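[recover] target loaded
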């Protein structure tokens, strides 16, 4: 399911809306793209992809396993921050190591290629921009978050794609006003590809 967009607007915190129905044991993934403050955090969440920066622009991905979840989630930043984030829910992930790998942040809306190591991965595209206009995801990806940039807002985009067979993804071209920035990561299933996405909210 999808909800209203969640954005930092020159603030040090933002509330991200939880998926409407969360199942205990499922993986929750929280990508954040921002500029301004240098660090972000959310109570009870761990780092899936450590903060990377290109200039003043950052992307970080947090995760947790659902356990008696209730309400929405507050993300705190180290200073006045502009950007956005969303929450995705997965079932059937590798509990010991949910992330196959994290890519390298790219300057621009085209995310750099990664090479996955397990069949059945889900690719996540995360993008941001502090230009004026909307961020867009690569054409083959399904949306899980899109907000417009302009004024005190930075644009944000998140999309996902079932890769199927492991290997080189190639670059993935999103869209957005300059200066944009982007990153790919891969969520992996256990030994057999049983991973599904069961809900996302922005």
């Amino acid at each position: 399911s999808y909800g209203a967009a969640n954005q930092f607007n020159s603030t040090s915190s933002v509330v991200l809306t939880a998926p409407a129905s969360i199942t205990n044991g499922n993986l929750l993934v929280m990508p954040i793209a921002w500029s301004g403050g240098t660090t972000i955090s959310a109570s009870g969440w761990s780092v899936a992809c450590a903060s990377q920066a290109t200039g003043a622009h950052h992307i970080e991905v947090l995760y947790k396993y659902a356990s008696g979840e209730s309400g929405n989630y507050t993300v705190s930043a180290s200073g006045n921050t502009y950007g956005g984030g969303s929450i995705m829910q997965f079932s059937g992930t590798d509990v010991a190591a949910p992330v196959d790998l994290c890519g390298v942040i790219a300057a621009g809306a085209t995310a750099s290629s990664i090479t996955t190591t397990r069949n059945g991965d889900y690719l996540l595209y995360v993008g941001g921009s502090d230009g004026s206009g909307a961020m867009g995801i690569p054409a083959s990806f399904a949306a899980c978050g899109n907000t417009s940039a302009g004024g005190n807002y930075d644009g944000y985009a998140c999309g996902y794609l079932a890769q199927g067979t492991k290997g080189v993804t190639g670059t993935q071209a999103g869209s957005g006003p300059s200066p944009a920035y982007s990153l790919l990561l891969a969520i992996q299933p256990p030994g057999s590809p049983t991973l599904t996405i069961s809900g996302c909210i922005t």
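[recover] notes: Residues 113 and 170 are 4 Å apart (CA to CA).
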